């Protein structure tokens, strides 16, 4: 599997899954564009990779700013082969205790930011007649769990959007891959929003015991290279996707007892 000389743009590359993906793509020969809000952390990741790397700080909540970021990338590399929509934020709060501002914030970052960036790169990919948009959803993009109402909604919305887009792009040379992580050992719960918009600030037990981000990346790259439509990466929690499909009543009962925050 090789991404030799391909231009791969990873959002959320300042930490966690995005950093691990960036390192794995660099090892596979890619040239990198690294994006997130924290420029110092992006520079740290860039300094750790041997790849030709362009750092493009951006805020996914500011959708109007994203087309100009695409122009920066194209001015530097002249093309784009893979966009990995990985940047995102999670939630740890009951629906009833979550302000509508937090619901909107999660949609702005996880859904509208991702959609806006994808739409901004699409004309270039279509002109090339090749490319792939990879979106990091979540198992919670396949089934809602307690404490994740707005996060689950934002991730479910991505599936609707990208399933439609995949069908529309058929025959264009541009593909869509959706990857759904289970529990991956990152700062996702530390950074997750609580009901009033403040970060949770602590590590979940399930996240702590999850897959290493490097292992996620090791499994993800071949799936992307093969052009898979959708895949689930994690431990036994990935079985939830199949339980929901084939035993929905049983699964709904199981979720009422779910202790995982
Ligand atoms: N870890 C898991 O268990 C898990 C499970 C399912 C899905 N996921 C998904 O995996 C993706 C990566 O999460 P992670 O686990 O690596 O968590 P993380 O360590 O918190 O990383 C999140 C990344 O997203 C970036 N980000 C957050 N808000 C942003 C914004 N407004 N604009 C631009 N970038 C932003 C962060 O960078 P800055 O703060 O520098 O902007 C950071 O690089 C997310 O989409 C998450 O929903 C993770």
UniProtKB/TrEMBL annotation:
One example GO MF annotation: oxidoreductase activity
Presence of the UniProt keyword Ion transport in the record: no
Classification via InterPro entries: KR_dom, NAD(P)-bd_dom_sf, Sc_DH/Rdtase_CS, SDR_fam
Keyword Oxidoreductase set for record: yes
Domain spans labelled Ketoreductase: 6-187
Family classification: Belongs to the short-chain dehydrogenases/reductases (SDR) family.
PANTHER family per the UniProt record, alphabetical: DEHYDROGENASE/REDUCTASE SDR FAMILY MEMBER 7B (PTHR44196), DEHYDROGENASE_REDUCTASE SDR FAMILY MEMBER 7B (PTHR44196:SF1)
Record's protein name: SDR family oxidoreductase
Record lineage: Bacteria, Pseudomonadati, Bacteroidota, Cytophagia, Cytophagales
């Amino acid at each position: 599997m090789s991404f030799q000389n391909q231009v791969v743009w990873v959002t959320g590359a300042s930490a966690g899954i995005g950093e691990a993906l960036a390192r794995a793509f660099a090892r596979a020969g890619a040239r990198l564009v690294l994006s997130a809000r924290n420029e110092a952390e992006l520079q740290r990741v860039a300094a750790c990779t041997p790849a030709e790397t362009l750092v493009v700080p951006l805020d996914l909540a500011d959708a109007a700013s994203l087309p100009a970021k695409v122009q920066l990338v194209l001015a530097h590399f002249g093309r784009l082969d893979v966009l990995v929509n990985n940047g995102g934020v999670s939630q740890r709060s009951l629906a009833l205790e979550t302000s509508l501002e937090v619901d909107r914030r999660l949609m702005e970052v996880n859904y509208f930011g991702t959609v806006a960036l994808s739409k901004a790169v699409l004309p270039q990919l279509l002109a090339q007649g090749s490319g792939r948009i990879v979106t990091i959803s979540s198992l919670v993009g396949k089934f809602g769990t307690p404490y994740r109402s707005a996060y689950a909604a934002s991730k479910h919305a991505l599936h609707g959007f990208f399933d439609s887009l995949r069908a529309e792009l058929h025959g264009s040379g541009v593909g869509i891959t959706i990857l759904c992580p289970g529990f991956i050992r990152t700062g996702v719960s530390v950074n997750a929003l609580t009901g009033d918009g403040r970060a949770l600030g602590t590590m979940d037990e399930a996240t702590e015991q999850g897959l290493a981000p490097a292992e996620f990346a090791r499994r993800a790259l071949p799936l992307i290279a093969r052009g898979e439509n959708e895949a689930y990466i994690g431990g036994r929690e990935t079985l939830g996707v199949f339980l929901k499909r084939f035993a929905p009543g049983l699964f709904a009962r199981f979720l009422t007892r779910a202790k995982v925050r």
